[in-house]
Amino acid sequence: MGQGAALLLVIRHALAFLAPLLLAACERQPDTPRVRADTAEAVFVWPGVHPAPEVKARTVYLLDGEVRKDGPARLHRLRMGTPRLRGRTLWLVVRADRLDWTDATRAAILADLAQWRAAGNEVAGLQVDFDAATKGLSGYAAFLKDLRARLPKDMRLSITGLMDWSANGDPQALAQLAGTVDEVVIQTYQARSTIPGYEAYFARLEGFPIPFRVALVEGGQWQAPPGLEGHPMFRGYAVFLLAPARLSVPPPVVATRSPLSKS
Question: Pfam families per the record (predicted)?
């Protein structure tokens, strides 16, 4: 038998020995936790998405419109009519691609806030959904400080945030944000799936100075990193709802207190 043939025979025997062990190891792995919406305490609802009847979240973030990067900086309304959700706390969300808002832009947003409240809704305030680069937090803080001054005194200000802020954010810029916004909702997903390696970001969250929620995507994988839920600034989770046709996981069977299920 040639040397090459002998080596091939050894490899075959090794694979035959290892295959049952690998299969058994796979069978012993626990089910991957999946994010579910029916037990969520807060949800994001974008236009075109209709929450299932079992979704009973007390806090709802509703996308009202966008300030797009093309053309003049104006509010493009995406929601037809005024929501009427009694018994829920609403946040009016504006998705922004730019920060050069005009007086007309801000006036349109303030008018929608007033209209939502006049319709009998409990409106907590405004959330700005803007992907501010970590190195640009200082400028973003200045924009938010000006915006906050224009909001009614009883309206709160929320923003979405990137996980990288906790790891590499300038402490001085974060302190500026802490004095301006009421909460940060830290996004853990991108393009409908959980960002891999999120544990490393949350491991450096110890000194984060702002009250925060953690945004999870419905059906995405998630296991709370050690210490997260005991963080003094942690305020819970918010689940981003997907249209039913886009969900890739079966509906949950067993209810739990956390927004997780086993797939």
Answer: DUF3142 (PF11340)
CB-based contacts of 42, cutoff 8 Å, min separation 6: 57, 58, 59, 60, 61, 213, 236, 237, 238, 239
Residues 204 and 169 sit within 8 Å (Cβ to Cβ): no
How many distinct structural domains can be found in the chain?
A: 2
Please, which residues bridge with residue 261 across strands? 34
Q: How far apart are CA 182 and CA 255, in angstroms?
A: 31
Q: What is the pLDDT of residues 45-99, one digit of tens each?
A: 999 999 999 999 999 999 999 999 999 999 999 998 899 999 999 999 999 999 9
Beta-bridged to residue 60, according to DSSP, are 43, 90
The answer on 4 and 65 residing in a single domain is no
Pair 173, 203 in one domain:
yes
Are 4 and 71 in the same domain? no
Question: β-strands 89-96, 156-162: how paired?
Answer: unpaired
The pTM (predicted TM-score) of the whole model is 0.82
Continuous segment of H or E residues that includes residue 142: helix 137-150
19, 62: one domain: no
CATH number at residue 143: 3.20.20
The DSSP secondary structure of 62-116, one letter per residue, reads: EEEEEE-SSSSS-EEE-S-S----TTSEEEEEEEES-----HHHHHHHHHHHHHH
Do 134 and 251 fall into the same domain? Answer: yes
Nearest to 128 by CA among 117, 119, 150: 150
